[in-house]
Design a protein that fits this description.
alpha+beta; 259 residues; nine-stranded mixed beta sheet
């Protein structure tokens, strides 16, 4: 049985999105959302993949499991402290490496956030949920992330369902802030396995009792812009040509002085 229409309506309501807001995220008309939810029409493959990303579910769950009737262990978390701008919209608070040292022990203190910069980003992607920005430190996630990059994460309010297997997350434990890929063993074993992209670093096991917050990384801000190999080859070729021309001019000048 296909549960797409039921699940879409349920997930949209759970995220407190109107049909128009979801339509804006998908770049479709509101009528299309109404038709999907009533079963009159089915979204195309590209739209289905977009829905999977928006609601953090698998394609199998979206299509074939009745998510509105799901039972079982559930552990909910809410970020106690958020900041808002003058219009009441939630800010994206920036936690740099210096601030991250105190984050695990101070993340519940409103005064702590007054010390941190905050900003807004345009686009509908950053209106659906609570987001936070963390600075990356060290080389454990190279080449995906470089030291000094910033990642923007969406708050995971359910460690069983919102953590997306194999994706990069910010995991806040009682002692530190970690940026890692997550293997989710929350439901079966009560823990998360944290993996670095740099294989020099061993996996870390984090028990749920020690996990304070989880933020699923949605985007990054980076000043690292690698030069493409073709561009590098062209640059070397141009420099070689310039050197040859320069040598030719020097030879001509030297020859002229000899006469």
């Amino acid at each position: 049985m296909n549960y797409l229409s039921t699940n879409l309506k349920h997930l949209r309501a759970a995220r407190k999105l109107s049909q128009q807001e979801l339509a804006d995220l998908l770049l479709v008309g509101r009528t299309a959302i109404a038709n999907y939810e009533s079963g009159i029409a089915n979204p195309g493959h590209k739209t289905l993949l977009a829905l999977v990303g928006i609601f953090d579910v698998s394609l199998d769950e979206l299509l074939y499991q009745d998510l509105s009737q799901q039972t079982g262990p559930r552990r909910d978390y809410q970020p106690v402290v958020v900041t808002v701008d003058s219009s009441g919209k939630e800010n994206i608070v920036l936690v740099n490496t210096k601030a991250a040292a105190g984050y695990p022990t101070r993340y519940l203190e409103p005064e702590y956030y007054k010390e941190l910069p905050a900003f807004q980003l345009p686009g509908a992607d950053y209106r659906n949920g609570t987001f936070r920005c963390f600075e990356v430190e060290g080389d454990s996630m190279t080449d995906t992330l470089q030291s000094g990059d910033f990642v923007i994460g969406r708050f995971c309010d359910n460690h069983y369902k919102d953590v997306q297997e194999g994706y990069v997350h910010v995991v806040v434990t009682g002692e530190q802030v970690l940026v890692k890929r997550v293997i989710n063993r929350a439901e079966k074993e009560g823990k998360l396995i944290l993996l670095s992209d740099n294989e020099v670093y061993p996996p870390i096991e984090a028990g749920l009792d020690d996990v304070k917050e989880i933020w699923r990384v949605k985007s990054k801000l980076s000043s690292y812009l690698p030069v493409k190999r073709n561009d590098l080859d062209n640059l070397i070729g141009d420099l070689t040509t310039e050197l040859r021309l320069l040598k030719k001019r020097v030879d001509e000048l030297s020859g002229g002085q000899a006469h």
